[in-house]
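Reposting from the mailing list since nobody answered there.

I have sequence plus structure tokens for a pair of proteins and want to know whether others read the tokens the same way I do. The first protein:
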Amino acid sequence: EAAREVIACFPVYRTYVRAEAGEISENDSQTISHAVEAARGLRTDLDERLFDFLHGILTLQIRGPQEREFVMRFQQVTAAAMAKGVEDTAFYSYLRLVSLNEVGGSPARFGVPVEEFHKWCSETQARYPFTLLATSTHDTKRGENVRSRINVLSEMPAVWAEAVTRWSAANARYRTEGLPDRKTEYLLYQTLVGAWPISVERLLEYMRKAVREAKEHTSWIEPNAKYEEALEKFVSSALADGEFIADLETFLSPMLAVARTHSLALVLLKLTAPGVPDFYQGSELWNLTLVDPDNRRPVDYALRRRLLCELDRLSPAQILARAEEGLPKLWTIRQGLRIRAARAECFGAEGSYRPLWATGPKAGYVVAFQRGEDVVVVVPRLTASVGNWEEVSLDLPPGSWKSELGGEEIESGKVEIAHLFSRFPVALLTRANSE
């Protein structure tokens, strides 16, 4: 029981203790101590010496053949317990803002200050310049652009609360004996905001998986037919309700541009921050998939090849005019990868990372940095809350700069943020001539 409690209290997937070699890092030692102490506090009915004994084994203070095997097996078990207990249960049960319920993430943490982001990037460049930077994988709970949409809700809580209250009242007639529960209904509305348009079939498959993973009203092992039938009826009826769908689309209309800007900022940061960018299949365009198997459906690569060939014939304005097709994202990826290849010395282990700081009343809404000598990146954050960029500027390093996304030439010195984003929502600048 003590071992089970320690496993349940583990704050990470696993440690990487090398029991045979007798090696344990300071970080792993602290992780183990944290879990043991948390377990000790929760199980005061157990003899404290059990926890002391476990701590001694796991930190290699007590050694022997059986102890070594126990440590190695323990590290395998904690990963599985974390995956099933947190990702596949808690993340389907705690639904305050589901875009935070992501593999490796924490629903308790809404974001970080810009200063912390720069600190992370600087440390990554110094220690792990080839770390993988992924925004969607086969294992993520939602596609990266679904999360970007749902994130916007955190900037408009009052409007969101009014919409949910209105939708719940309108859809009350589709409930069956009070089912589904309100929390699951709230998950449905967040999912619709993130993934619309979505077919009834895809949505039903997702919602069925979500409630079974949550294990509160039904589960994979013991399906609750009454609950699941009520849920299926509710979802199907809501999506067939023309007035509800019209209201949903009216709500979505003004926030889609904001969400797309956030998505472009995310992909540009992935392309240029310290590390190596990774692109999951299908995420070259807007990725509105949900958890597997939804994110493993066939990808239309012919469409992506065709759109890629069209980019050279289009201006930034024409690309933005076709935002529905995902062209702005494809354009950002194509240009970012070209710059990584053309200015390779600015990236990787030999490159450098230097934060750049905007000034003005909304300076905290700008993330900017320089890679090497010849690349500057500027993206907005929390754009639903910005309003306008009046009196917000950035001092560009010396030299002449070309906007690889907007196409314009920009001179060094004080540059208005509004100007940097005038032709494209995010900015990737390269030095036109070295000084």
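The second protein, same order (residues first, tokens after):
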Amino acid sequence: MLTAPDAGPQRAAALLARSALEDDVCQRGFLAHAALKAGLPDSLKARAYNQLAWSEGFLQLALDTGSDYARRALEAAEQAGDLEQQAVALGRLAHLLAIRGQPDPGYLERAVTSGQVVTVDDRPQLMLGLHLMWRGDLEAAKTILEGQYAEAVRLADDSARPYLLVHLADLAVRRGSGNDLSRHVSERRRLAAYQHEYGGVLSNYVEALAAAYAGPAHQARESAEAGLTQATEQGVVPAQLRLRWVLGLANLLDADPRGAWAVLEPALTTMVEKGVGEPGFVPAVPDAVTALAALGDLPRAKQVAAMLDRSAAAGHRWAAPAQAYCKGLVLLAAGAPDAGATELIEARDSFESIGFKFDAARSTLEAGGALRRSGQRGAAHAMVSDAVRRFAAMGASAWAERAESELARAGGRRTGQTLTAGEEQVAALAAAGRTNREIAAQLFVSVATVEANLTRAYRKLGVSSRSQLTRLRTMAAE
């Protein structure tokens, strides 16, 4: 193991270079500190402080410490006239402040306008796209993130593409775009396998996220648990938080609120302790309230829901509908289903207006449950039917199946001609010309499952071939 040298700029530079290659967060920080103690010129001092701003400030979420390191990096880079490290420091400072919930767009503007070319995780444009996504401006985020990916493709930057695809998968889930999610996950698998990277923390996160969205829940849990073990061993706190969130989402999909709260509670505790003030950074609060409301733990549900209050009051685009969603669930748990349904419908409309289709569909499902509990069975049936339709349209097939279970409780009755959500998805894709293998890849199911759903759809619709199915659906559309 390397230890702090007594002196020597060459030794210091070697320590700094070694630090950049370390996977272990603590060792990375130790080496950067050792390089600083050895005495570095301002240009390398800026690089060392920037590394610490990332390894301690971001990877360990020591946000105040990291912000201080980023400011020191900026000062050293300005003294050295190093424009590249100035851009890196500005971007990292902006990123850490945004996670605290104290965004300062001026730093990113300076970094973006500098025109410096930096590595992908330092790009101010990428950070701007992430901040927009967290705060609920999905279309602007989509433009930036897709632009960054297109640029990586143009430059044949295969080291940047898998990293960017993680963020694009996140965006696809929030937008409720199953087609985009499937495309991003498939492309990331291909690139990761080519680069012999598959099986790492980010791969497990993407696979878990996709399965928590489309199912099956057990696959989401397996990938999330594997990734969480790795992220914990490496000391990467943001990855731990995101994997706990996905694990909680998978447990909710599997109707296991107790299991969901068990993994979400440590994530929320860490975010509070670390001073994370941006609710969209890891959007776990609504899921935690969902779990607590299902468990009947009203005091803690209210306490967790209050974590959104400051951001919602400040005009945070996503926090406001998320707050209405949580309020609806708290009212429902308190025995006020009519008022709860009103809040949940408001949440649905607000989520829909800002493009969060997945959250809108989940709000619709919960509103249907509230209406059923208030005795409005007809309205409940219509509401849950809409949730089934929404989930099916966005490729969230496992959630559509869960909504169908609620539909049965709401008094829904299927006729022999009515397709399930899974059958509807497969039939629509088959009629559009997709092969069974292509359909299986898009929906994250086996080819056998596609064949079984298609067979049942043929029987219910009275057709016996893809061409007949296509003609039938074309006539229905007309």
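Reply #1 (J.P.):
I read it the same way you do. Residues 1-7 have pLDDT under 50 and may be disordered.
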